[in-house]
From TrEMBL:
UniProt KW Chloroplast keyword: no
Active site: 347 (proton donor)
Protein name as catalogued: beta-N-acetylhexosaminidase
GO MF term set: beta-N-acetylhexosaminidase activity
Keywords (A to Z) from UniProt: Glycosidase, Hydrolase, Signal
Species of origin: Oerskovia douganii
GO biological process, one term: glycosaminoglycan metabolic process
Family named by the database record: Belongs to the glycosyl hydrolase 20 family.
Length: 571
């Protein structure tokens, strides 16, 4: 079928998309004979699983019933498979009772996300070796039904019925770690908005939810033993002075945070909490005098700057800093069942030794809680890194190196090299590709442009494996074997209109967080997700753009406020 479709174009494409609007593009797709599977009142969801994984498979079934039931109004009961039955959507784990997948294990094995999907006139069969694979396959199945299935209220069936075409798909991700970061510190995202972000990310098969929980402009997670962190440190947002928020609370209680972790878990995403330091800590320093050298809390900060004063990590004050980290990281480790703690480490103008003091203490405490450390690439300046550390590269990538930043960007690469020498692996989030707080173009009403502007094509058309190769191809700092994965990021700096020039200001001039997030993420988040999921050889921008135009009608149905980016003909 692929040959048939490409026969009428000049170039023979090797891309396995076969005209179906699937994003990210699967490893192998064939369109089969037949009318396809019609979802109707007789359809059921059949679960085939070893006992030990039954709750997880049941969870996938419930998610599927909700995805397919909302717009169709169909009940889609869950039950055991029935021999010879038609109308079943079968979710089947192929491994036996001995195969135990653990939802809190590291995201280092792409095979747990692999699946096979067959749709014919009689039934749908989705098989996988582990529950995340079933969940990823469910996302593919959703995209096979008509776009109206994404509507949030009951719709009449489209002319051809709720039909998925007959296909056979096998699929497995390129990278095991596929993250999405949300900056809830510069702007606070209420629980419902975080869930919306989780929906966006999980639809495109991302599996890590990185929450940037603390920064100069706010502290967003409750630490029972240090109530001042939230009582004081949560009262600001960037551009938003305390007392103008109409009594809203800008942090997550333990119950709310647990709700986020549970919701992410339902979508087979692991939460990666970030407690940034020693820089980006003014909210903590305003809350606790123990973090400053003179013992006096700093004033509350709601400005837009970075590179602000860091915690006092001098030899003399490290007792205080260590006590702070012990209390905070114990609480955060306890609220996050996943294997990771992100310790930040970016933009920390430090007197000699302070940065290393802080990193040493934070690394030791985090690993003491059994967590794998993640840090921004500056974390490579630590004297030592614990085994398994992941370093997140956020400098500019290959296309802009040498164009902006000069010396500073070379320093980035020194930190990366040091981290690699200490055994770290990399999460790739080059700012000129994956920073979706960057404007699309000159017409984007908010966001930044310090790295560059990022069109849809630029968000899509890059290869993580060669981002840390010099433009002339001569020097390879790191290749794919050093890369754990890819992350897409939504910072919340300047999530207010460009027309707003004087800060501070009241709430009425701010863009609602969902409006900002939807606009910046769509259409670009699916682009980064495909970079993370699909093999390089299977990716091709014109083909992606055509598939994405098909997918865009789903965003409209789902009520997502996406940006009709100017470089694409969306009609
Ligand atoms: C750089 S990325 C930062 C953030 C800003 C972002 C805005 C990183 C580790 N530091 O503090 O929010 O730029 O694009």
């Amino acid at each position: 079928t692929a040959a048939l479709l490409t026969a009428c174009t000049d170039e023979v494409s090797t891309v396995p998309s076969t005209g179906l609007g699937l994003v990210p593009v699967p490893t192998d797709v064939s369109v089969d004979e037949g009318e396809g599977f019609v979802l109707d009142a007789d359809s059921t969801i059949a679960l085939v699983t070893p006992e030990i994984m039954a709750p997880e498979v049941h969870q996938v079934g419930e998610e599927l019933a909700e995805y397919l039931g909302t717009a169709t109004g169909l009940e889609l009961p869950l039950g055991p498979a029935v021999e010879g039955a038609t109308g079943e959507i079968r979710l089947e784990l192929t491994t036996g009772a001995e195969a135990v997948w653990d939802r809190n294990s590291p995201l280092d094995d792409p095979a747990v996300d692999a699946y096979q999907l067959t749709v014919d006139d009689e039934q749908v069969v989705l098989t996988a070796a582990a529950p995340p694979g079933l969940f990823r396959g469910v996302q593919t199945l959703r995209q096979l039904f008509p776009p109206e299935i994404e509507a949030r209220s009951v719709q009449d069936a489209p002319a051809g019925g709720w039909t998925a075409p007959a296909v056979t798909i096998t699929d497995e991700p390129r990278f095991a770690y596929r993250g999405a970061m949300l900056d809830v510190a510069r702007r606070f995202y209420p629980v419902e908005s975080v869930k919306r972000f989780i929906d966006h990310a999980s639809t495109y098969k991302l599996n890590a939810l990185h929450l940037h929980l603390t920064d100069d402009q706010g502290w967003r997670i409750a630490v029972d033993a240090l109530p001042g962190l939230t009582e004081t440190g949560s009262t600001t947002q960037e551009g938003w002075e305390p007392g103008t928020g109409g009594g809203e609370r800008w942090y997550y209680t333990a119950e709310e945070y647990a709700e986020i972790v549970a919701y992410a878990g339902e979508k087979f995403m692991t939460v990666v909490p970030e407690i940034d330091g020693p820089g980006h800590t003014l909210a903590a320093q305003a809350s606790l005098g123990s973090l400053t050298c003179d013992g006096v809390p700093t004033p509350l900060y709601w400005g837009p700057e970075v590179n602000n004063p860091i915690v006092c990590a001098s030899d003399e004050n490290m007792g205080n800093v260590r006590a702070f980290l012990q209390t905070v990281l114990a609480s955060v480790a306890g609220q996050n069942p996943g294997p990771y703690l992100h310790l930040g480490g970016d933009e920390a103008p430090s007197p000699p030794g302070w940065y290393q003091n802080y990193a040493e203490a934070a690394n030791e405490i985090a690993t003491g809680h059994g967590k794998t450390v993640i840090g921004w690439h500056q974390w490579g300046a630590a004297d030592d890194l614990p085994p398994g550390t992941l370093i997140q590269y956020w400098g500019v990538g290959e296309r802009l190196r040498g164009v902006i930043g000069g010396e500073a960007k070379n320093a980035d690469l020194v930190d990366v090299q040091d981290a690699l020498d200490m055994g770290a692996r990399l999460i790739m989030s080059p700012a000129d590709r994956t920073y979706l707080d960057m404007k699309y173009d000159g017409d984007t009403p908010y966001g930044l442009e310090w790295a560059t502007r990022i069109t849809l094509e630029e968000a899509y058309d890059w290869d993580p494996a060669t981002e840390l190769t010099s433009p002339d191809g001569e020097s390879v700092l790191a290749d794919e074997s050093a890369m754990a994965g890819v992350e897409v990021l939504l910072w919340s700096d300047r999530s207010y209109p460009d027309s707003l020039v004087s800060l501070p200001s009241g709430p009425e001039v701010f863009v609602p967080v969902d409006t900002y997030a939807d606009f910046m993420l769509f259409p670009r988040l699916p682009a980064t997700a495909e970079v993370a999921w699909s093999e390089q050889a299977d990716r091709d921008y014109p083909d992606f753009r055509d598939r994405l135009v098909q997918v865009s009608s789903r965003w409209t149905e789902a009520g997502i406020g996406w940006n009709e980016a100017a470089d694409v003909d969306w009609t």
